[in-house]
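Q: I'm building a small set of examples for a reading group on sequence design. Run inverse folding on the following structure and report the sequence directly after it, with nothing in between.
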């Protein structure tokens, strides 16, 4: 298996089809998987593929960033990204900027897509024409070395707890403008446009867990657990309705 091809796709029901299709294109020792993060790293260490081909929507969100994480761990691994869905063109260059060796898109037309896959098979760099045009518009590539700081992670967890920026500032004892700065850095790092997308991405990438979620209120229940305001209101409303029914 050493020197083979590892296909990374979240479409589990299509794994056998992907394996057959890539073998028809001349790819050797094809393995298809849907495992992520640590599981994927372990698999790469085990089979030591020559090529890794990842679906552009593998992580649903934040795939360019995760491609960069993968490149940092395995700098000698050829990483090709394949888009068979309508992946946003404005985000596609970030795969290359984060370290991917290739980006092929079905939306460039089947003939060009097929040509790209053949080039990827040889281990040469390939960038689809439209994405290459965007990249060439930049005088220099953007910095992708930025990592999440401890404070940014704290802001992210509180954001996932439902806190607005003003409340995050109060809890962390920092200025509102500082909170905004941390949030903007997070949005830029993960290529999201708002708080809702950032929260969704944090859950998708498992950056936060259920243990991280806490609700801070002045009044606590008997178990010492904090409930969000909507839950407290809902509980009072149910009690009132029950009393009226009696």
């Amino acid at each position: 298996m050493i020197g083979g091809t590892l296909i990374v796709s979240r479409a589990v029901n299509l794994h056998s089809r992907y394996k057959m299709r890539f073998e028809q294109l001349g790819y050797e020792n094809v393995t298809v998987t849907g495992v992520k993060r640590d599981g994927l790293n372990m698999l790469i260490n085990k089979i030591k593929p020559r090529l890794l081909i990842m679906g552009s929507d593998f992580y649903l969100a934040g795939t360019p960033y995760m491609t960069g994480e993968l490149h940092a761990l395995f700098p000698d691994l050829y990483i090709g990204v394949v888009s068979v869905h309508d992946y946003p063109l404005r985000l596609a260059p970030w795969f290359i900027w984060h370290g991917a060796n290739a980006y092929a898109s079905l939306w460039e037309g089947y003939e060009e897509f097929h040509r790209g896959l053949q080039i990827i098979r040889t281990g040469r760099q390939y960038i689809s024409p439209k994405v290459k045009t965007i990249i060439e518009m930049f005088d220099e590539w953007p910095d992708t070395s930025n990592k999440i700081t401890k404070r940014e992670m704290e802001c992210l967890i509180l954001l996932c707890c439902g806190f607005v920026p003003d409340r995050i500032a109060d809890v962390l004892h920092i200025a509102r403008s500082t909170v905004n700065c941390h949030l903007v850095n997070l949005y830029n790092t993960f290529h999201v446009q708002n708080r809702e997308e950032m929260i969704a991405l944090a859950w998708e990438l498992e950056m936060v867990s259920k243990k991280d979620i806490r609700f801070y209120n002045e009044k606590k229940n008997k178990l010492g657990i904090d409930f969000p305001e909507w839950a407290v209101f809902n509980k009072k409303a149910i009690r009132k309705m029950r009393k009226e029914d009696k």
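The chain is about 50% helix and 10% strand.
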